[in-house]
Amino acid sequence: MPLDLLVIFPKPKIDCMNYWLIKSDPETYSFERMKKEKKTNWDGVHNYAARNHLKAMKKGDLSFFYESMNGEPSIVGIVKVAKEHYQDPTTTESWVWVDFEYVEEVKKPVTLKEVKGNKKLAAMALVRISRLSVQPVTKEEWDEVIAMSK
Questions:
Q1: Cα(16)–Cα(85) distance, rounded to whole angstroms?
Q2: Residue ranges per domain, the chain?
Q3: Which portions of the chain are predicted below pLDDT 70?
Q4: How far apart are CA 51 and CA 87, in angstroms?
Q5: Which of 4, 16, 85, 138 is deepest in the core (most CB within 10 A)?
């Protein structure tokens, strides 16, 4: 493309970020603890689908932090990938860890019941494959949950 056309029609910015949802029981690792520590490695994932999602994460990707057993299961905060996957040092198998860092607490937790009740989120992995501990989230799902949290 000639240079003068690039000035008139600049390349559009493409959102290359991926979005995720990670789950934890507060007894194992709470969002309150994440807020205090600011950064942690995500370990203990021994499910192949969840492991593959960890491997697909890129530095800077955002993730919802979902607490599965704290009163009513809810999305309570946002974290981001600080370090991409690396070998789990406690095993010789193909399990991996990812480092996350704290971003923010959502203004209003979004409960599983609210997610399931929203028709725009009917295809979300949290609704379809609720037991999976690491899940992809589409940009549209991300935006809808963010709107619900305000």
A1: 18
A2: 16-148
A3: 1-15, 70
A4: 11
A5: 85
